[in-house]
Amino acid sequence: MQIVSDPISETYRLIKKYDIHARKRFGQNFLTDARVLDKIINAADVTKDDFVLEIGPGLGTLTRVLCDHAKKVLAVELDYDLVDILEAEFTMYENLEIIQGDILKQDIKKIADEYNEGRPIKIVANLPYYITTPIIMELFESHAPIESITVMVQKEVADRMMAKPGDKNCGAISLAVQYYSEVYLAARVPQNCFTPRPRVDSAVIRLTLRKNPPFEVKNEALMFDLMRAGFEQRRKTLVNAISGSAKLDISKQDIAEVIVKAGFSETIRGEKLDLSQYAALADLLQ
User: Fold this and answer.
1) Which residues, at least 6 apart from 66, have a Cβ–Cβ distance to it below 8 Å?
2) What three-state secondary structure class fits 122?
3) Whole-angstrom Cα distance, residue 123 to residue 269?
4) Alpha carbons 142 and 126: distance in angstroms, whole number
5) With contact defined as beta carbons under 8 Å apart, do 186 and 204 qualify?
6) Sign of CA dihedral 140, 146, 147, 150
7) Alpha-carbon span 40 to 18, nearest angstrom
8) Which pTM was predicted?
9) What's the burial of 46, exposed, middle or buried (CB within 10 Å: 0-12/13-18/19+)?
């Protein structure tokens, strides 16, 4: 049974009632366009059989719609004041639980076990843009049972996640996201869909996690370290980028030998390699 008729009007009501001002330190921008809500729900494909973990509910604009569509919603909010508002204003939703906390400190596998009997969960998030990448990577690397992550991100971040090797937007995050998931662009979201209005356009993307990686690699962590080194210093050759990385204890001679053994030129740059080629390098080094 649907309870809320207009989540956008409810958001404006709460802003006025509690005299709310978005906090820059939390990267807060409140969504105020119902069309975007529909696109998020459609992209996430939330049904009455689903348990949804919502990260950063804010004033609950999306939370209301999620509760109308999902079996159960667990909303994790960092801001104590917003948690108090949500707990006071959302008592009508019996399928909603709200907790205050940092998502980076939550045990996602434990949440899936406790709330969904260990079955895959769906994650929906409208994250502060400055912390989008660390949270997504933490979710991936948790290896928790996650079916999909549907998230609002800065447009440029969405472009990077979808970029292919050789594209100017391609980076370590591009290859990492594509290693763990299939990326789908659900919607472009202009600045005027939020209050306060951000300085950048946004996008809704869905990351459908792969049941198995596209290929096997002996040491995932090493592969990602190599990718980060290769993309952090694009103007350098891959040999110089990796041998100069503070995180990797690999000599210039050793990495040069491995790169040649893998069939590449010693002067190749890191941005030219794809996922499988970084995996091959990691396996040779391992």
Assistant:
1) 41, 46, 52, 54, 73, 124
2) strand
3) 36
4) 20
5) yes
6) negative
7) 26
8) 0.89
9) buried
Are the C-beta atoms of residues 99 and 75 closer than 8 Å to each other?
yes
How far apart, in whole angstroms, are the C-alpha atoms of residue 153 and residue 124? 12
What are phi and psi for residue 244, nearest 5 degrees? -95, 0
Residues facing 134 on adjacent strands: none
- HSE-CB for 55 with a 13 A CA cutoff: 28
Phi and psi based region of residue 30 (left: phi greater than 0; alpha: psi -120 to 50; beta: remaining) = beta
Residue 82, C-beta contacts closer than 8 angstroms, at least 6 positions apart: 57, 58, 59
Question: Contact, 248 vs 214, CB < 8 A?
Answer: no
Nearest alpha carbon to residue 278 among 206, 234, 217: 217
Closest CA to 97 of 115, 81, 118: 115
d(CA 270, CA 231): 6
Report residue 235 as tokens. 């103007």
Query: Among residues 215, 201, 45, which one has the least CA distance to residue 129?
Result: 201
Q: What is the spatial distance between Cα 6 and Cα 3, in angstroms, rounded to a whole number?
A: 10
Q: Is 234 helix (H, G, I), strand (E, B) or coil?
A: coil
Per DSSP, the three-state class of 218 is coil
Token pair for 112? 């899936």
Give the C-alpha separation, 208 to 178, whole Å. Answer: 10
Digits of tens for pLDDT over the chain (286 positions)? 444 458 888 988 998 899 887 565 555 677 778 888 899 999 999 999 999 999 999 899 999 999 999 999 999 999 999 999 999 999 999 999 999 999 999 999 999 999 999 999 999 998 777 888 999 999 999 999 999 999 989 999 999 999 988 888 999 999 999 999 999 999 999 888 877 777 788 899 999 999 998 988 999 999 999 999 999 888 899 999 999 998 999 999 999 999 999 999 999 999 999 999 999 999 999 8
